[in-house]
Amino acid sequence: MFKARSVLVTGSNRGIGLEFVKQLIQLPNPPEHVFACCRSPENAVELKNLVSENPSLKVIKLELEDYTSIEEAGKQVEQVVGENGLNVLINNAGYFGVSEMNEKLEDVTPESLTKHFNINAIGPLMVTKRLLPLIRCAAQQGVGDEMSASRAAIINITTKCASIADNGSARMYGYRTSKIALNMINKNLAVELKPDNILCVLMHPGWMKTDMTGPNALITTEESVRPMLDVIGSRRREHNGLLFDYKGNLIPW
Amino acid sequence: MFKARSVLVTGSNRGIGLEFVKQLIQLPNPPEHVFACCRSPENAVELKNLVSENPSLKVIKLELEDYTSIEEAGKQVEQVVGENGLNVLINNAGYFGVSEMNEKLEDVTPESLTKHFNINAIGPLMVTKRLLPLIRCAAQQGVGDEMSASRAAIINITTKCASIADNGSARMYGYRTSKIALNMINKNLAVELKPDNILCVLMHPGWMKTDMTGPNALITTEESVRPMLDVIGSRRREHNGLLFDYKGNLIPW
């Protein structure tokens, strides 16, 4: 069961991010604070509707390529959580260049590689860097060396496409390289923040029916996020640094 | 034993790259053409001296962040190898931000991440893209489905630091993320170019005493490159897409 006092979700205006927010506020013991970050709060109609019925929900502007917006978002979260800090950061926002789905070596461009890397690797890392003091603050209120989302956790949403071992179909150079960079970032964080008892876990949400994917997708966002929240809630010290699918199965590097 | 008609090495003005060139031209059966690529041929004193005694050696300007130079280098190689194509491309040039050696999350900058990614991931991929027609040309002259450096191979020089499984000390965000991106690129190439019988292999050269490393290095460039050439020369179809150290040991992802 997922239980945390405060949770921040990036890319929460649609797809998995929106579903995370919906399910978090509907939990039997919902978080006191859910921060729904997105690029254009003014256009996030569904989030706006949710806010009107849920005072625990706060919509915040955050754009992964705009570091000023990351700084500003950090300040807003700080003001709300105060000394309790932030328990869970879900780095969900990402980019997938649909037109690169079938790209071969001849089609690869530096522009596509750069855009994917900026959004999928540098972005989440900069968000994590900004929020680290708040996450540390939450971690310090836990007991002993326990590690869990109830204390402090950084959840990085990645993809099975970023498994070298699993890669049997090539293509998607930008998506694969940027997401495997995120996997390495998660491992770095897991090692570096272990003394702080901050759990760092990678999640593959499954092939979902979102704006990003096509008709080949297998599950709905609801079918992905429901088990994923349980998996995140049940991760402990022994899972730190690893990659799981939404059902809790370990995915090889 | 390493044997190939033509070999191109990037970053060959010093360190491992220079050592590759030296040992290639000293082989009992040296390549007909060795292309030593570097950013500033005019300043590459050691390469210049080698050229004067070795007509098989050609020094070519190539800068990983300058795509015009990659295009120009491709044209020069084309003119020399003609219809025989290029047998072996060794993507050796790379970047390691020494000042990031001990960087923690608080120290990470987008600039460092970008520079590492540009040079260590995008650069080698753009070089490979430009030279692919020449490598394909060499591959087409082989027999059946054999795969080896004697036919056609892309060798990507990476690092054990880019192994998530092996990462127990964190730090070096830019170096680790860019080199693991290169590992994914190699796997993509291995899958994509398998029907062309082009071998794609990653090599970890060991901790060498070069300008890039410090006094903790374990071996000289000569002690790295000598066994590495043998390992490259003995890689076959079953090794395609994998990562080996300079002694031929498999490194996990």
Automatic annotation (TrEMBL), chains A, B:
SUPFAM superfamilies: NAD(P)-binding Rossmann-fold domains (SSF51735). CDD domains: carb_red_sniffer_like_SDR_c. It comes from the Eukaryota. Keywords: NADP, Oxidoreductase. Gene3D superfamilies: NAD(P)-binding Rossmann-like Domain. It holds the Pfam family adh_short. Belongs to the short-chain dehydrogenases/reductases (SDR) family. This is Uncharacterized oxidoreductase C663.09c-like. It comes from Saccoglossus kowalevskii.
